[in-house]
Amino acid sequence: MLVKTVAGKTEFYQCEKCGHTYPAMEKALLCESNPVTPFQYKIGDMVLYEKQYQSYHAGSWHDGSTDRAVVEDRWIHGLSEKGEPAHGNMYKLRPVGEGKGLIITRFEDQILRKM
Predict the structure, then answer these.
(1) 56-71 per-residue burial string, b: 16 or more CB within 10 A, e: under 16
(2) Beta strand 46-52 with 21-22: parallel, antiparallel or unpaired?
(3) Strand extents, DSSP E, 23-82
(4) Are 95 and 102 in contact (CB under 8 A)?
(5) Each residue of 27-79: pLDDT tens digit?
(6) Residues in contact with 14: Cβ distance below 8 Å, sequence separation at least 6, in sequence order
(7) What pLDDT score was predicted for residue 85?
(8) Domain extents for the chain?
(9) Average pLDDT for 6-29
(10) What CATH number is given for 38-114 in this structure?
(11) How far apart (Å, rounded) are the C-alpha atoms in residues 115 and 101?
(12) Cβ 85 vs Cβ 101: under 8 Å
């Protein structure tokens, strides 16, 4: 059996602060009601960030270790289903230590400081 894709007219609503789109106007308005804060770090900055992993016993994401990385990109996070902050500043980081070659993302509060 062949699946046929039918193009239909779908409306999306966009938050004017972060640019994220939502299928319902209520979600876009909820997103837009959240404040936006200036970015603390610039693209190219060397930063110290928190490493994360899933702990089997404590259920915690933070293991207390840190590493260095370079900021490669940044954007504003829209609404989340996971309890993350709406309009939180997000960063794409490239580690320079053991994780060299990986690309990771972190919220601004997970970056400890500029090096």
Answers:
(1) eeeeeeeeeeebebeb
(2) unpaired
(3) 46-52, 62-76
(4) yes
(5) 888 999 999 999 999 999 999 988 765 444 444 444 557 788 999 999 999 88
(6) 20, 21, 22, 28
(7) 74
(8) 38-114
(9) 81
(10) 2.30.30
(11) 19
(12) no
